[in-house]
Write a structure and sequence with these properties.
The protein folds into 3 domains: 78 residues, Phosphorylase Kinase, domain 1 (2-Layer Sandwich); 175 residues, Orthogonal Bundle (Transferase(Phosphotransferase), domain 1), CATH 1.10.510.10; 73 residues. It starts with 9 loop residues before the first strand and ends with a helix. By secondary structure, it is α+β, with helices and mostly antiparallel strands. It is globular and about 80 Å long. It has 11 helices and 17 strands. α4 packs antiparallel against α6, α6 packs across α7 and α6 packs antiparallel against α9.
């Protein structure tokens, strides 16, 4: 027996402007639930698909229900729009956190593990996400990372490969260009590696690397492995973390981890001996701070003086900074020389 019911929500402020390819997202009040929700509205004209597939994203979200995947309250439609109602998460997105700079390595690992747990559930449900990026990672009220926005999701093909539609250009895996849009689980692994890279290094460095120019130049930079620069990590990021992220970003899918679970296992083996906070100044100066267990706080400074840079390290006790390991201090360095020197400094301070 068909039952037709009426759903009402009161549309409020638009959020996430510019983040969706073919949708708008609004805060809304649901009088039936007596609370605040988020509603994603997708114009039917923008979908260019069979009407029977209008609810594909909602079905993928429902099938992937998990603590690390954003839940869906309900899906409905108007004469010209598909409307997906979801919980409102006040803690915002990973992109919001990256606006303040790179994350601590412990947070990169924790958030990465949550993303991969959610992604594994999506894969088990038979879908590829294909739009993993910081704006599509939200945090619950308990600060649990959750994969969001399955608008680009595709069913996994019978041989593990499917043909993807349009994607976020700087997040496209190399095989999208090299194999006529044929994508697989390894494509989601690549996008997760890209997200880990952005967490470790910050979006400022990532955005500065984005290729400019016509579309073929962007595709060439991605397929040749020049974007992102696999060697351009901040110097405090340990070798073990770099190795995991670089493997996830391999140009050839055969060289990557072959499942979200496999990548999560490798990431979980990365130890955090010293957890550095990184502060990027508009001038280009960088300060790192850490408090190793049962030890005083450590500060490392990279400071520029015109074209020359200096590296200094300190301990902090009772609010006073004292020089530490002066043998590691150097000045009169180029920026690249300073970064190379810092890669020797951090292991000695851990």
């Amino acid at each position: 027996m068909d039952v037709r019911a009426e759903l009402t929500y009161i549309r409020g402020q638009q959020i996430g402007v510019g983040h969706g390819m073919n949708s708008e997202v609004f805060l809304a009040t649901d009088p039936q639930l007596a609370g605040t929700i988020v509603v994603k509205e997708i114009p039917k004209a923008s979908l260019c698909i069979n009407p029977a597939d209008y609810y594909r994203e909602a079905q993928a979200m429902f099938a992937s229900s998990h603590d690390h995947v954003v839940r869906i309250h309900y899906a409905c439609e108007t004469s010209d729009r598909i409307c997906l109602a979801m919980p409102y998460y006040a803690r915002g997105s990973l992109a919001d956190r990256l606006a303040s700079g790179p994350l601590r390595l412990s947070e990169v690992i924790r958030i990465g593990d949550g993303i991969l747990t959610g992604l594994a559930r999506i894969h088990v449900a038979g879908f590829l996400h294909l739009d993993l990026k910081p704006t599509n990672v939200l945090f619950s009220d308990a600060d649990v990372p959750m994969v969001a926005d399955l608008g680009q999701a595709c069913a996994i093909g019978s041989h593990g490969v499917t043909i993807a539609g349009p994607m976020y250009c700087f997040g496209m895996p190399p095989e999208y260009f090299l194999h006529s849009r044929a994508v697989s689980v390894e494509s989601d692994v690549y996008q997760t590696g890209l997200t880990l890279y952005r967490m470790a290094n910050g979006d400022e460095a990532f955005d500065a690397q984005k290729p400019s120019g016509p579309w073929p130049m962007i595709a060439d930079a991605i397929t040749q492995g020049r974007f992102p620069d696999r060697d351009a990590f901040l110097p405090h990021v340990p070798r073990a973390a770099r190795t995991v992220i670089k493997k996830a970003l391999s140009v050839d899918p055969c060289d990557r981890y072959h499942s979200a679970t496999e990548l999560a296992a490798a990431l979980g083996k990365v130890s955090v001996d010293t957890d550095w906070d990184t502060y990027l100044a508009p001038t280009g100066d960088i300060r790192w701070r850490a408090r190793p267990p049962n030890r005083t706080e450590i500060v490392v400074d990279l400071r520029g003086h015109g074209s020359h840079h200096a590296v200094e390290s300190f301990t902090v006790s009772a609010g006073r900074m004292r020089a530490r390991k002066k043998a590691l201090w150097k000045s009169g360095l180029t920026r690249s020389q300073a970064m190379a020197h810092l890669q020797r400094v951090f292991p000695s301070l851990g």
